[in-house]
Amino acid sequence: MKKIYINSVGSVSPQKTFDNSDFLEEVVYHDTNVMKVIDPNYKDYIPPAAARRMAKGIKMSTVASRTALNEAGLENVDAIMVGTGLGCIGDSAKFVGDIIDNNEQFLTPTRFIQSSHNTVSGQIALAIGCTGYNFTYVNASVSFESCLIDAILQLRTNEARNMLVGGVDEIADHHVRSHQLIQHIKNEPVAAQKLLESDTKGCITSEGANFFVLSDEKQPTTYAELVAVKTFNTLSKDRLAIVVSDFLSENDMGPEEVDMVILGNNGDVDFDGYYSILSEGMFENTCQLYYKHLSGEFDTAASFAFWLGAKILKSQSIPEAVKLNSIVPDRLKNILLYNQYRGENHTLTLLRQC
What we know:
- By secondary structure, the chain is α/β, with parallel strands linked by helices.
- It has two domains: 4-215, Peroxisomal Thiolase, Chain A, domain 1 (3-Layer(aba) Sandwich), CATH 3.40.47; 225-352, 3-Layer(aba) Sandwich (Peroxisomal Thiolase, Chain A, domain 1), CATH 3.40.47.
- 31% of the residues lie in helices and 22% in strands.
- The chain has eleven helices and 14 strands.
- It has a ten-stranded mixed beta sheet with strand order 5-4-6-9-1-10-14-13-11-12, sandwiched between helices. A two-stranded antiparallel ribbon has the order 2-7. A two-stranded parallel sheet has the order 3-8.
- Helix 9 (273-279) links the parallel strand 11 (260-263) and strand 12.
- The mean pLDDT is 94.
C-alpha cells in the first residue's frame, strides 16, 4: 500500500509555534479559561489593508499554510482541505449583530461573505492560485481527521501528489458565553500546569490553525509517515480498549509496539476518564503525552497533536512540558494519537518515523 508522508508543518497556536525552528523550547503557560493564540506578525504574510478585513481564522490559516508551503518548497498544491468546527464564527456573530443594530438596512456584505465555513480554504486557494480540489469539512471535533481520511484516499488512488491539509477554529465571545452556561467551558480560570487537577466540568477553550503538506513522495523535509486514521461517532468506555487493539491489529501492530501515546485530556472531570482507560490499562508502561494545557480545547485541537507528533518524530526529542508520565521510550518510531470530545467523536491516528 502506498505510503503517505507529512512533508511540512505550519502552526499558529497559544504557543510560539509559528516559528518552525523552535519546538516548545519556551513554553507559555496561560492562567485562564479562554486561551488565545500568540499572534505572529501578520504584516509579514498579509498586506495590512487586506488583513484588516480578514477574520481571525483566515489570518491564522494564511500564516500556518504559507509556513507549511514554504517549508515543503511549494508555490502551489493539487488540493486544499480544511477542517473547522465553527468556521469564521466571529464574522457570523458580527453580521447578525449588524442586522439587529441597523434594522436590516445599510449592511455591507464583507462580513457575510467571510462568515461561511469554506472561506478559509477559498482564501488560501486565491492567494496561491490553486484551482484544484477544494473542500471544507465541518464535522465538529472530527473535522480535521475527516480531511486526513480524504487526503489518504486521494493520494492512494493517484488523484493528487501534494495536498495542503489543515484544521482551524477561532474564538467568538458569544460562543464562549453560551458554552459556559451549559458547563462545556470552565467558568473559572485554571492554571495550565494544573489543568488535570482542576476536578471541574468543562474545558479551557481556545483557537488555532495547524496546516500540513501531505504527499505520496518523501522529501528531505519529511517529518513522518501518516499510517492510518479512524473515527468513531460513539464509543462506550468498555469497548475503547478493544477498538484501539483492533485498530493497531489492522495496521499489523500490537500495543507493545506503540512507543508513545498522545492523549487529548482537557481537564473535564466528566470525560477525561476515557483517557484513563488507556493510560492505566494497555499503555500503562508506555510513554504518555498530553497537549491541551498548551493548546486549549477547540474542534480541531487534534491538529495540534498531529503537529506535536510529527515534530517529535522528526526531531527525535520530547519536550518536557507535554510529558504525562516519566517513562522514557527506548525508541521514537510509532506514535498513537487518541482524542474525543465529551464522550463523542473518538479518533485514532497512527504516525510512524520514516
